Amino acid sequence: MNFSELNLNKSLINALGDIGLEKPTSIQQKVFGPVMSGKDIVGIAQTGTGKTYAYLLPLLRLWKFSKSPHPKILIIVPTRELVTQLVEEVEKLTKYLTFSVVGVYGGANIKVQKTKISLGADLVVGTPGRLVDLMLAGVLKTKYLKKLVIDEVDEMFNLGFRKQLKTIVEFLPERRQNLMFSATMPEDVESIIDEFTDRYQKIEAAPSGAPLENIEQYVYSIPNFNTGANLLELLLKSVEEMQKVLVFASSKKLADVLYDRMAALFEDQVGIIHSSKSQNNRFDTVNKFQEGHFR
Ligand code: AMP
Questions:
Q1: pTM of the full predicted structure?
Q2: Is the dihedral of CA 52, 54, 55, 61 positive or negative?
Q3: Is residue 243 within 8 Å of 295, Cβ to Cβ?
Q4: Closest ligand 1 atom, residue 52 Cα
């Protein structure tokens, strides 16, 4: 199947052409019709399945130009980096539309964000805490909101955003379409979803929690942190394909310790990111990783 077989319009087809995408992924094919028909959906899909375009494409296809400055679409994501990434994706897809998107997140000047929203936005993307602040301040008006997306609901839960989400739901108009995405759907996640919708269609990219087919996974059993750090050093020195490596640590403190060790061994090739780092620092690190300066 090609994108031309989905009921897209010229602006979106041309934008996809510029991005270089030809065929919709499985979740993109499955989600398109139900969203177009106005249903609430819960997509079980992890990063890498193409879930972002799975909701952006039908939402932008359904979108109609209006003079109202208030947002019609709200997308909630768990991290600041995801906000900026999503704003970029939306800008690419709406290159041939008259459409404005604003991203908001904590740790950045709220006044600047307030001004941007006041100037008008068709779509607002944000992290939960900052969205609550902007709604409470009366700057982010939700009366005209028609579509709500919550991406990575399981991460929202893990990061403790439940309370903020509960506050947000109280601000939303009752009549709206809800689209929610999560890689897994344990009971806690389901109960968050139930706060937003009573009836939804569940759509799976792959069985819940299934690993992506194009990713090979290996497990090393290690007794402690120190051995893990030694193993990481060995892998980085001996495995040639490991040129773009993401290492997750269980706490900020361990991330700092691991960073110090690796940065001493691989000078100027290692970056670190966690919530105690300044926002500029976080963005800078992500950029350097994306551009290949950091290994
Ligand atoms: P996501 O799962 O939304 O985080 O997307 C993962 C990556 O897949 C992103 O870099 C997208 O640009 C890319 N992607 C999304 N849709 C497609 C598609 N239909 N064909 C090829 N790549 C895609």
A1: 0.86
A2: positive
A3: yes
A4: 3
**CA 24, CA 4: separation in Å to the nearest integer?**
10
Q: What is the mean pLDDT of each run of 10 residues along the chain (295 residues)?
A: 93 96 93 97 91 97 91 97 96 96 95 96 97 97 96 94 96 97 94 95 76 79 95 96 94 96 96 93 94 95
d(CA 160, CA 156): 6
The two tokens of residue 25 are 């992924």
Q: What is the pLDDT of residues 33-57, one digit of tens each?
A: 999 999 999 999 988 889 999 999 9
Residue 74, strand partner residues? 124, 148
Q: Is the dihedral of CA 19, 22, 27, 30 positive or negative?
A: positive
| Atom 8 of ligand 1, nearest CA residue | 50
Q: Say how far residue 177 (Cα) sits from the centre of its chain.
A: 19
- Number of Cβ within a 10 Å radius of residue 196: 21
Which residue in this structure is represented by tokens 């375009």?
Answer: 53
CA distances from 182 to 42, 61, 185, 208, 259 (A): 8, 23, 7, 9, 30
Ligand 1 closest atom vs CA 45: 2
